[in-house]
Design goal:
Helix content is 28%, strand content 34%. By secondary structure, it is α+β, with helices and mostly antiparallel strands.
Amino acid sequence: MKLIAVLVVILGSGIMSPKILAAGPSVALSTEPPGDQIVPDVTLSTVRISVLDGRGDPIPNVKIGFDLKAPVSGRLFSSDFPHVEGTDLMSYELVSSDGVLEFEYLWPIRGSYEIVMSASPTALSPVQFEPVSTSTTLRLSESRAEMTNIIILVVFLAVFGLASGLVLGRSFKAGQEVA
């Protein structure tokens, strides 16, 4: 009977004061268009970082931190802009009155971007919480047009090499037969 009374008190206080049972805040990243539709150096995208409470609503008056690091160079191939590879592209820390940081960005190169986001309350925050931090990776693929151009180039070079080899091989063979 005591157990039931304790549960009723806990649940009742949770209903009266939702902060007691509320989940901690989270930091969410979204892009428009989605990451799989972004073409590097072509598509201007809207990046949105939101600090959300346990119900998924933005928490106003929070400090948002954001660090963006460019993809590192690949094992075999570099990107078409190697000076950017592996560098820190952005680092922000600001107070957001509505709990959302939104900006437009033209992603420079293909690859996996490392994104670290953090949030902490300010004195004006309606919800006080421990600072949170999360990291994520945003993968951007090469443009389909560039991949098509690379395939065409490789096929052209292979055909040219084969034709050159046949011509040079026949002329070398003909030169040996004459001598």
